[in-house]
What we know:
mainly alpha, 550 residues
Amino acid sequence: MSEKKSRSLLSAGLSLSFFTLCSRILGLVREMTKAAFLGTSKYADAFGIAFMIPNLLRRLFAENAISVAFIPTFKGYLEESDSADGKQTIREFLSATITLITFLTTCVVLIGIALTPLIVRIFLDSGDTHLIAETSILTRIMFPYLIVISIAAFFQGVLNGVKIFSPSGFTPVLFNSVVIAATYILTPILTNHFATDTDGIVDSELKAQMAARAMSIGVISGGCVQAVFQLPFVIKTGWTFHFTTLKKAFSNEGTRRVMKLIVPTIIGMAAYQLNDVVSTALAGKAGTGIVSSLQYSLRLQELILGIFAVSIGTVILPDLSGLAKKELWSDFNAMLVQAAKIMALISIPVTFFSLICGTEIISLVYKSKRFTDESVRLTLVAFRWHIAGLFFIALNRIISPAFYAQGNTKSPTVAGIFGFAVNIALALAVVTLRNDGTGGGIALALSIASFANTVALFIFLRKNKNLDVKAVTLGTVLYAVKLVVLSIVAAIPTYFVRNAILPVFEGHGRLIGFGVPLFVCAIVYAAAGVILLLITKDEIVKIIVRKIKK
C-alpha cells in the first residue's frame, strides 16, 4: 500500500474518529441520562423496545443501502463523470434515489404506526396492558425517525462518496445533544401537565413515564436535525437533486443497480439485525429490567466499536472499492490486514480491562437516582459476556466491507444468516435451561454468534483467488493471540492494584469511590501494556508512531 494511501486512510480515520468519539461520549451521556431518569424500570424497557423498532429498520435499510449499494454505485459514476452527459446521469441517479428513499420509508412508517400495538406484543408480556399501551405510544412517536434518518443517511452517502466525512461524523453529536436536552427540558413540563391525572401512579413512576416520552420526542427531533445539518454540505459539493416521479425513480439504471445489490444483503442484514429482535423479545418476557440492562451493556460496548470499528470501516470501504476496481489486490490485501490488526490492538486489551473493572465502569457511568445496586448487578452480568465478543464484532465491521468493495453481497449474507441461527439457537437454549433472571445467557449467545460470523467470513474470503487470504487469516490470528497474552500479563498487576485501592476510596461518593480506582487501574494497565508492546517491538505501534511523526 502506497505511503500516500496510508496517510489518507490515517488522516480520514483520525478526523472521523474524533467526531465519532464525541458522538459516542454524548451517546454514553444520553444513556447516563436514561439511567438517571428511568433506571432499569419497566419504562426503561418500554423506551428500549420502542426505539429498537425504527432503529432496527434504519440499520437494515438506510445504513445497509448506503454503505453496501449506494456508495459503490455513486463512486462508479463519479469515475466516469468527465462529460456533461455523465454529470447529468449522476444528478438523475441522485434524484431517483432520494425519491425512492422518501417514498418507501414513508410507506413503512405508515404501516408500522398502524400495526404498532401488534408489534409491541411480541416483546412484552401480554398481561401488562398498561405497559403495552405506553410502549405503543413511544413507538408511534419515534417511528417517523426512520424517514428523516434515511434521508440523513442518503446525504451521508453523497458526502462519503466524494470523501467528505466530517459533517456526517458530527451529526450524531447533534442527535445525542438534542435527546439529552429534550429529556431534561420536557420531563418536568410533561410531568406537571399529567400530574392532575395520575390514576394512582406514584410521582416517581409518573416522572419515569414522562421521561420516556420526553426522550422519544428528542429522538424524532434529533433525527430531523441530522438531516437538515448535512444538506448545506451536500449542496456545496455541486451534486444537486430533486424529487422525481416514481416511474423514473424505479426505472433509473443506477437505482436498479442499487436494488440489485441491496436485496441480497437485506436478507443477510435482516438475519444479523434479527439477533437484536429475538434477544429483546426473550429479554422482555424474562422480567423487568432485563431489556434495559442489556441495552446499557451494549452502549458501553458500542462506545468502543463506534470510535474505531465503524470509523475505520466507513473510511476503508471507498478505498477498498477503488482498489478492487483497479485490481490492485496487493494494496487491497495490505489495507485489510492493517485494519484487522488495528482492531485487535484496540479491542483485545479493552476486553481484558473491562473484565477486571466492569463493576467500577458501570457504577461510575450509570449509578445514580433510579439506577440502583440491582441495576448495576443486572448490567454487569450482561456486560461481561457482551465484552467477550468485542474483537469478533469489530473484526466483522472490517471484513464485511472487503466483500462489498468487490460487489460480493452474497457471502456476508450467508455469514449473517449463519450467525443469526447460532445466536437464536443458543439464546433459546440458555433462556430455557438457565432461567436465572439476568441477561447473561442472551449476551453470551450474541458473542458466540459474532465469533461464528467471523469464522464464516474468513472461510468465504478464500473464494477470491486474487487475495492472499492465508496471510490475512494467519496474520490476524497470530497478532490476536499475541495481544491476548500481553493483555493477560498486563491484567495481573492491575487486578492486585484494584483489590488494594477499592477499600480505600469506598464510601466517598460515586465519582471518587469508583472513578479514582478506575483511573488508577487504567494507568497501571495502560503503562504495562505500552511497555510490553515496546519490548516486543509491535509493528502496528511502529506504524502509528511513524505516521504521527509525519
